[in-house]
């Protein structure tokens, strides 16, 4: 079939229109990324199989509180089995597994699908995106750290003879629980996201995160036994526990000053946040 | 092997495939014989799903596929006669082009894998780059080395999923020539595409899939002819457009004529009657026909017609 | 077994960040053993069998190495879409699976056994139990490697999130549940591996006393390999390309 070249060009009006409504702007865009990321940290809005792992971990993280309250209820008296300052050390592996499972979901998905450029060409900036993702993971971790503490606190109050008396006495613990949960959540989330933002491969990210938590605990134990007492400062798990003890002014068996461990947690978190921001400044999108 | 009167190369019988509530392929039946056949449809129409069912990588929810009288599902032995070029770009990036094709030859247990690989690479004109790692190839090069790996065992049936993606126009023409040559040698070539122009230029016959259903199949001009409820338009150039136009107006098959200096546009109500009448009219009037072209006969119009229906 | 698939898989797995990472992890037990000997406290045989070999090597290194290699042999290929170049060939899927599984087994066993050999020798040097304990743990981890690799390969065929699912099995099932409920140890590859190590080493019960007996452990391992291997073959025969792919 032969065709002759067109003599004259023409532009057809296909009826495209530009968006005339109000633009909600950067703040709204950041909030949207934050909310969607937080939802996806628990598999909300995703298919059922994405919910399995976060739900399993959420259930397990509640187990110590449930067991404690079960025993207290059965023996009809207030118990001291699970103390609020010990809670995060009971479930530290679960917390690490949660960030190992979900940080790659938050950071890796957009890299795998090459959708980062779609975000950065909108009102949102690279730093906003990074902070929204980090905020979402910290918030998700706060759910995991605060919900069991709340269950424990309320449950303890109801198993005593005088709930009001208990609340009055232990009210001082509330800010401590909040502060330590924020600290633990911030550390886990920032370390995990610093690793997960570096690779689109889910298995690598998950492996790296679990390795840094479990590996640092193993190495910290070795260094503690050989090089000296400051060796334990390498272990992220022990840092979390030590910092929590410092916040609660609780008795502990560490040979290192716990305020030092608290400072180390803040330092590691700050470095991780810096690494995340730097990664997203430079990531090709 | 010359194509004998053997079994039909590809036979798809009442195939449906659904994923949960989504029906991706809906009760499709057709047969594909030797030659180039294009599987055409917009993105998301179910082309890939259908090709995956045909190559045994998806189980049909209903119906079945036979390739050369062998079932496709649970039968990797079928790949002795079938070559598959997947849509995804990935190759083993650490292998060179030659190693990649030779691996395919070895996995087919060919007697002389080195020679088979060299021949396949020659066919796709990749000999110059065969010693470089495939990880560094461009999209078009990856596409060609994938084709080489899938024709290394000289298959009777070649299935390609969007083979022209990422190719530049020159590579595209070369790939089309290659597929045509395979078809001339009696092979069955089936490729999918969402681009009309590709299918129009390459395919002898076409299968049109819209929303998971087979909307049309056969020669696309033939399909167009079957849809007589929509007028056809021809562009005609002749030695005397005015005279020819006047004569054709009296034909019952013609519903309208438009004259525009050298070109006459004829709207036709009855395709068959018009094509039979036109040469006779021109001969009796002593008019030379310079060009007769169906002006809306492109696959695009067939396709948009089918989609709208 | 298919030599070409074995060579291909070796090239896929070796010489990457993954291997460097695994070597570093495999060195940890030796560092720990050196530290222990330097401190000069405790009974080397008891410490080595329960803490070092039974704890760190069998409870952590073995499952993690099995997880890394077991999920990589097919999971990575399925993820990036190259699996088609093996599956669209007239080769029985059983052959593909067995060839790939052998590579995972080989790598896992070499990593774990080498790590164990060095660390165990450092920790047990000059003790009476050295030969027996090392032999017992080497035999057990080689068998355990096959079991872990097979199970995790199956997992990678069942879910795209096999790595994290495997971690949950290792930390929550083997680490937590079996510690709380004794009966579940029957369904734990870690305890079967320890049981086999104890059976082969046959040292004094005061030194090393695993919970599962030798016959039970062997039965658990064989059953795990047979069941997971068979299911993996069936799953690979019925492999379907994902819609996203």
Q: If you had to describe this structure to a student in words, what would you say it looks like?
A:
The complex is a heterotrimer of chains A (285), B (309) and C (245). The longest helix of chain A has 34 residues, at 126-159. Chain A contains eleven helices and no strands. Chain A is globular, with a radius of gyration of 24 Å. Chain A has one domain (25-282). Chain A has helices at residues 25-41, 48-75, 87-90, 92-112, 116-120, 126-159, 163-170, 173-196, 202-226, 236-248, 258-282. Chain B contains ten helices and 14 strands. Chain B is α/β, with parallel strands linked by helices and 309 residues long. In chain B, the strands form three sheets. Chain B has a six-stranded mixed β-sheet with strand order 6-7-8-3-9-10, sandwiched between helices. The longest helix of chain B is centred in the middle third of the chain and has 16 residues, at 169-184. Helix content of chain B is 35%, strand content 28%. Chain B has helices at residues 47-54, 97-107, 113-123, 139-151, 169-184, 196-202, 220-226, 241-249, 271-285, 299-308, and strands at residues 10-19, 22-32, 35-40, 62-67, 70-71, 82-85, 157-160, 188-193, 205-210, 213-218, 232-238, 254-260, 263-268, 289-294. With 245 residues, chain C is mostly helical. Chain C has helices at 3-13, 17-39, 44-80, 84-87, 93-124, 130-158, 162-180, 189-201, 214-237. Chain C starts with a helix and ends in an 8-residue tail after the last helix. The chains are: A mainly alpha (285), B alpha/beta (309), C mainly alpha (245). Chains in contact: A-B, A-C, B-C. The B-C interface holds B 19, 24, 49, 52, 55, 57-59, 74, 76-80, 82, 84, 86, 88-92, 94-95, 100, 103-104, 106-109, 149-150 and C 2, 4-5, 8, 11-12, 80-82, 84-93, 237-241, 243, 245.
Concise account of the structure shown:
Chain A has eleven helices and no strands. Chain A is mainly alpha-helical.
Core attributes:
heterotrimer, B: 309 residues, alpha/beta, Rossmann fold, Alpha-Beta Plaits, 2 domains, six-stranded mixed beta sheet, four-stranded antiparallel beta sheet, 10 helices, 14 strands, 35% helix, 28% strand, elongated, C: 245 residues, mainly alpha, 9 helices, 0% strand
Q: Output the strand order for the largest sheet of chain B.
A: 6-7-8-3-9-10
CATH domain class name of the largest domain in chain B? Alpha Beta
Beta-strand residue fraction of chain A: under 5%
Helical run tally of chain A:
11
> Spans of chain B of 5+ residues with little confidence (pLDDT < 50)?
none
The first-to-last residue Cα distance of chain A is: 44 Å
Inertia-based shape of chain A: globular
Looking at how many chains there are and whether they match, the oligomeric state comes to heterotrimer
Number of helices of chain B: 10
What fold name goes in the CATH topology slot of the largest domain in chain B? Rossmann fold
For the sheet with most strands of chain B, the description reads: 6 strands, mixed
